[in-house]
Design brief:
Belongs to the binding-protein-dependent transport system permease family. It is a multi-pass membrane protein. It is found in: Cell membrane. It comes from Paenibacillus chondroitinus. The chain contains eleven helices and no strands. It is an all-alpha fold.
Length: 291
């Protein structure tokens, strides 16, 4: 190569390969306020299509007499029964006592489940001592242990709350235990390098990593607490939504039975939705598949 060619080559700007542009996401997280409202309404409409269709067909078939109103009352008859109970104040009284029982039982059982799950997950010796007995008790159905609770504690509030607590204990216990044991062991190596104390390891490392499982256990515990409430109120009660259903069944008031079932469904869904809102706030860092 001649000297002139060398000088020209030196003066040429060096061409560097362009950095790959980040892929354009199909999602648009930074939506405007009207767009967010529109998206929420779209979700509401989609979720309402199936139940509205079922209700319309149900009302039509019931009005035409295709199905007996004693066996399957129409949605309008159920609404009328709900309205009458609401106006009389009877519904509020039963719902209040049921929510109180479920809340107290859930707080007792859920708190113990969380505490025992933490201890079993963190300490191997505690797991070897406690976990076999807990797993054995977990397999006992509510209906099997109900007669024993009646013999021991009678038909009072204590036996009902204890039965609900028994159901709420196990989901939180299992999910907390699994969440702690699924924590990556390499994180503990990092914690030892940073000279974290045992308390700091639990609060800064173990609990945040196990939080998805703990919140899942919370949702499951609430659901099982409602199931325990049904069993507790059906086994012998003078008030509560379960008693309302049992009393209506004895007098063939099927519409009121449906009112009680729908109350359990809506209150259970409402409590589950509250936990899901809590999940969204506490688990913003998690990048998960949304379907």
């Amino acid at each position: 190569m001649s000297q002139a060619e060398v000088i020209v080559a030196k003066n040429q700007p060096i061409s560097r390969p362009k950095a790959a542009e980040p892929p354009v996401s199909s999602e648009q997280p930074n939506l405007s306020k009207p767009q967010r409202k529109e998206a929420k309404w779209e979700l509401v409409v989609r979720g309402s299509i199936l139940p509205l269709t079922v209700l319309i067909l149900w009302q039509i078939f019931g009005s035409l007499g295709v199905v007996s109103k004693t066996l399957l009352p129409t949605p309008y008859a159920i609404w009328q029964a709900f309205y009458d109970l609401l106006i009389s104040g009877e519904l509020f009284k039963h719902v209040k006592i049921s929510i109180w029982r479920a809340a107290v039982g859930f707080l007792i059982g859920g708190s113990l489940g969380l505490a025992f799950g933490l201890l079993v997950g963190l300490f191997r010796k505690f797991e070897q001592t406690v976990d076999p007995s807990v797993q054995m008790l977990r397999t006992i159905p509510h209906l099997a242990i109900t007669p024993l609770f009646i013999l021991w504690f009678g038909f009072g509030e204590f036996s009902k709350v204890l039965l609900i607590a028994k159901g709420a204990f196990f989901p939180l216990y299992v999910q907390t235990f699994l969440g702690i044991r699924n924590v990556d062991s390499k994180l503990f190596d990092v914690a030892r390098v940073l000279e974290f104390s045992k308390f700091k390891q639990i609060t800064k490392l173990v609990l945040p990593a196990a939080l998805p499982n703990i919140l899942l256990g919370l949702r499951l515990s609430i659901g099982v607490a409602w199931l325990g409430l049904v069993v507790a109120e059906l086994m012998g009660s003078s008030e509560g939504v379960g008693y309302l259903i049992l009393d209506a069944r004895q007098f063939s008031q099927t519409a009121i039975v449906f009112v009680g079932i729908l109350i359990f469904a809506f209150v259970g869904k409402g409590s589950d939705s509250l936990v899901r809102i809590l999940e969204k706030k506490l688990l913003k860092w998690r990048d998960s598949f949304n379907g």
